[in-house]
Backbone:
């Protein structure tokens, strides 16, 4: 019974912490592209600009309590916020279950495993960064250098702490990831005389290659292309506004494919 209660407590703690982190990621997604991340320390209503009271700013639960409507102006709140919060919490939980760094003993106490904690931290941080990149690219069709470039620069630190990621694999991953997208974009330009993939995608795949190793680059590119194609065709079928020249952000598909690789291997 003690073991069961400890496991439930851990799940509750991870979900709660994940929702809080998700709320912060939502702020990052909305503020980073606008360049006003540090201009306001308080949460503001995205519809009328009024300050949101702290008791109405509880991740996910405030949205449910208010039934998806703003307390100040009674307008409908975008479901973007609870989706980001819930996704973050679920990925944090998935990171723990795939790398459980705490083993609860039936007689009481627990066993902490350092290597599993590093694996958990790697997956959790990587998932959060992919959520931010996806949200920004989906909204603004850009992947800010302020996220992708620090990821590339922090690759040596990731390699240092990760138990299974060799230096050479990460180094090749950075150059292969950036090089593949650059080559595809260059060939597309030669054939169509117009830009296809942006360099933001190249930097993101370079970061993915550095954090996951070079073996993740080609599967990520393949999975993202397949998912993106299905999404594009489906959108064209159900929306008369889209056509073959419609611009679709590729970053979310790269992020999703990299997460499928990370948690599926």
Residues:
């Amino acid at each position: 019974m003690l073991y069961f209660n400890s496991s439930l407590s851990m799940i509750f703690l991870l979900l709660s912490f994940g929702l809080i982190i998700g709320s912060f990621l939502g702020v990052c997604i909305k503020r980073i592209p606008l360049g006003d991340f540090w201009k306001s320390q308080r949460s503001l209503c995205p519809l009328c600009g009024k300050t949101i009271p702290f008791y109405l700013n509880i991740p996910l639960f405030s949205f449910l309590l208010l039934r998806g409507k703003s307390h100040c102006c009674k307008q409908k709140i975008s479901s973007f916020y609870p989706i980001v919060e819930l996704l973050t919490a679920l990925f944090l939980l998935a990171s723990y279950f795939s790398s459980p760094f705490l083993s609860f003993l039936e007689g009481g106490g627990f066993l902490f495993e350092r290597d599993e904690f590093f694996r958990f931290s790697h997956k959790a941080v990587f998932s959060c960064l992919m959520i931010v990149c996806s949200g920004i690219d989906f909204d603004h069709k850009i992947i800010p250098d302020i996220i992708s470039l620090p990821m590339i620069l922090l690759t040596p630190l990731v390699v240092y702490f990760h138990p299974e990621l060799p230096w050479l694999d990460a180094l090749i991953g950075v150059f292969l990831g950036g090089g593949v997208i650059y080559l595809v974009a260059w060939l597309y330009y030669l054939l169509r005389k117009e830009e296809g993939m942006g360099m933001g995608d190249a930097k993101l795949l370079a970061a993915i290659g550095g954090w996951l190793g070079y073996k993740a680059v080609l599967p990520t590119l393949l999975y993202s292309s397949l998912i993106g194609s299905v999404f594009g065709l489906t959108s064209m079928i159900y929306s008369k506004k889209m056509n073959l020249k419609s611009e679709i952000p590729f970053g979310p598909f790269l992020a999703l494919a990299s997460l499928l690789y990370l948690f599926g291997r």
Q: What stands out?
A: The two ends are 33 Å apart (CA to CA). The chain has a mean pLDDT of 83. Residues 2-31 form the longest helix (30 residues).
